[in-house]
Amino acid sequence: MNPDIYREIKRRILFLEYAPGQILNENVLAGEFGVSRTPMREVLYRLSWEQLARVIPRTGTMVTQIEFQTMMHTYQTRLGIEGEVGRLCAELATDDHLEAIRTIRGACVVLADRKDPDALVEIDRRLRRVVHDATGNPILQSVSDHLYTLTFRLWYVTLDKGDWQQEVREMLEEIDATLAGMQAGDGMETARVRRESLVRHFDRIRAKYLGVPSKVKL
Q1: 216: left (phi over 0), alpha (psi -120 to 50) or beta
Q2: How sure is the predictor about 218, in pLDDT bands with cuts at 50, 70 and 90?
Q3: N or C, fewer C-beta in 10 Å, the chain?
Q4: Model confidence over 56-68: pLDDT tens digits?
Q5: CATH architecture of 3-63
Q6: How far apart, in whole angstroms, are the C-alpha atoms of residue 178 and residue 164?
Q7: Where are the domains of the chain?
Q8: Cα–Cα distances in angstroms (integers) from residue 158 to residues 25, 202, 206, in the given order
Q9: CA-to-CA distance for 186 and 90, rounded, in angstroms?
Q10: Are the beta carbons of 53 and 61 closer than 8 angstroms?
């Protein structure tokens, strides 16, 4: 599989450049990237395995829809995973990890007065990379990243709606609480922080996506 083509098409799906339900034509994409159909087919099958696309016989490959019920189930699964990530990262974090999170916090603060959804996404991803690295567990990171990817589009499609400063405040609160737990080496507290941050994140998304206050319990 061509990793560069895979990353680019995946990026387009996640950032909604390819809309949910859109058909991706294998021949057209192969022509765009200057490759034969075989490597393009490999990329599309990989994205299908990741549940970001669905191969439809005699039609093509369709970008999967954003189905709220499926997203809710995925968030429920993420709760347990993120709790374990929080526990391990607090118990194993180094001074370098803590300093990296402080740097990320500084980059987040400036977004309060500058609406830039892509920049906030990058802050979130940087925090996740540091926290995952601190766990020292690549399998846990892989599972966490896969579940995050499945829910990412739902977050991204709602990120530009509602109170921007609230989104930044919530990110800062997550960073601060995670950092405090890691500094204290308190695995149970950091696990709780990671889970509660995820629940609040889901609540905001549900309220914006469905237009009603959240009553769903993760």
Answers
A1: beta
A2: low
A3: N
A4: 887 889 999 999 8
A5: Orthogonal Bundle (1.10)
A6: 21
A7: 3-63, 68-210
A8: 28, 11, 9
A9: 6
A10: yes
Helix (H) or strand (E) holding 103: helix 95-109
If pLDDT is split at 50, 70 and 90, which confidence band does 2 have? Answer: confident
Cα 23 to Cα 135: distance, rounded to the nearest angstrom:
38
Instruction: Tokens 């990110």: give the residue.
Output: 171
Return d(Cα 63, Cα 25) in angstroms, integer.
11
| Of the candidates 70, 55, 83, 62, the residue with the CA atom closest to the CA atom of residue 19 | 62
Q: Are 40 and 5 in contact (CB under 8 A)?
A: yes
Q: What is the predicted pLDDT for the residue at 62? A: 94
Report residue 215's pLDDT band, with 50, 70 and 90 as the boundaries: low
Strand partners, 179: none
For residue 187, what pLDDT is reported?
94
CB-based burial label for 101 (10 Å; 0-12, 13-18, 19+): buried
